[in-house]
């Protein structure tokens, strides 16, 4: 293959990574932005989404698209519910203390991981993609499903942006983020907003996992990479900035795809981490974040 | 001027703590309907804490706060504004990254008020109407104070709590804020005003409560204070 088509292939692979990463990181960013909670268990909600997608799609017989669609709707809902329960049982009782919640979510990470190992097992299991249409380009064929991941992610990001900036729910979430005490003085039930945001963050990770599982496979340790990459994206993009999260996810995803193809995946990770270090040194609030007041 | 009137807000025996540090010691306070009551006292006397306690933002360990016969202590903080109490915090505390319109919308949402309320409030502060799309953090200090008051008035409150609204403003803005407080009194809103400057107090207040060490030492009619300002010197040491 010539350089041009090769680059196009690498860029497409990178965009798929970006798409999934943007959704996952957005969940992490929302939870930190509104609640000031660093959710170390975020990757486990991602993993749960994938594992549940496998469970749901294998439980439903018939055309693979049916099982996949069921998983796409049900898995995030179940994960959201689990997040809601853990928020009520753990984070709320710690009064959302920034240090205590880090330790608590580390605990949640191991509990969820071990539960998955116990009930799901150590195997990596595939989920059948809902369709296997291949788009034929002049130089190579490319999975139509992978392109649909990019489209689905873009759609969800736009929907999230719309909710945040154009609806009352978004207004309430932003008010809570900027000044939770004053928000309460204006009738906003801050603890219910927190519960909702935590569930929403987990659901975004779960949706991302359901989308990726037909091309990667579900495994009980699969949450670690997304967690690390999400942190990288959120730090580069600026915490609480939706635009920054998306831009950073595309940047990291594309560079990961292209550098992995032409050089090596290790170099891609080295460069991403170096970028984080540079951002932390020269622009600690992130590329699009606003300095704290 | 102050005949015995119906009480808009009654605080009795209020104890409040920040952690283990007691700030209010059995504070008593009565706000009559339609009056402007000023809380006056030194820094750290407990004026702001009193307002925060009314809003449920500082928990009270003992005592009661009643609005129109309804007990507020024990309510979650987000239910207090629904009882008709609006708060203009010290330092304004606007949602600075949001637009003027969004700040007003948050105020309207608190008690489900609509367009008519919004119009009334914008009538009171016509300047804000030209700034609706502007991010509220970029307004001048005086405009921010107006927006903070507008946001609170969107609740159509029976009781308004104002914490040092004239702090750091230029004289023309201070006059404007004072004028607004007077207008609100005419329309029947009962106001608790926290102030540090005695001249700002004398022109708008009906009565003045002197707060010292977390207690309400004395409540005086403003006429009496004008005639004999010795109380100001006694509690605050200026004047």
TrEMBL record, chain A:
Transmembrane segments annotated in the record for this chain: 6-33, 45-62, 68-90, 102-122, 142-164, 193-215, 227-254, 261-282
Coiled coil (UniProt feature): none
Localization in the cell: Cell membrane
Keyword field contains Magnesium: no
Membrane topology qualifier: Multi-pass membrane protein
One GO BP: amino acid transport
Main localization, broad class: membrane
Pfam families (alphabetical): BPD_transp_2 (PF02653)
Keywords: Amino-acid transport, Cell membrane, Membrane, Transmembrane, Transmembrane helix, Transport
Keyword check for Secreted: no
InterPro entries: ABC_transp_permease, BCAA_transport_permease
GO cellular component, one term: plasma membrane
Protein origin, superkingdom: Bacteria
Family listed: Belongs to the binding-protein-dependent transport system permease family. LivHM subfamily.
Protein name: Amino acid/amide ABC transporter membrane protein 1, HAAT family
Organism: Mesorhizobium muleiense
TrEMBL record, chain B:
UniProt keyword annotations, A-Z: Amino-acid transport, ATP-binding, Nucleotide-binding, Transport
SMART domains xref list: AAA (SM00382)
Gene Ontology terms for molecular function: ATP binding; ATP hydrolysis activity; branched-chain amino acid transmembrane transporter activity
Record domain ABC transporter: where: 4-238
GO terms for biological process, alphabetical: L-amino acid transport
InterPro entries noted in UniProt: AAA+_ATPase (IPR003593), ABC_transporter-like_ATP-bd (IPR003439), ABC_transporter-like_CS (IPR017871), BCAA_Transport_ATP-bd_LivF (IPR052156), P-loop_NTPase (IPR027417)
Gene3D superfamilies linked to this entry: P-loop containing nucleotide triphosphate hydrolases (3.40.50.300)
PANTHER family xrefs: HIGH-AFFINITY BRANCHED-CHAIN AMINO ACID TRANSPORT ATP-BINDING PROTEIN LIVF
UniProt similarity note: Belongs to the ABC transporter superfamily.
Identification of the protein by name: Amino acid/amide ABC transporter ATP-binding protein 2, HAAT family
Species of provenance: Mesorhizobium muleiense
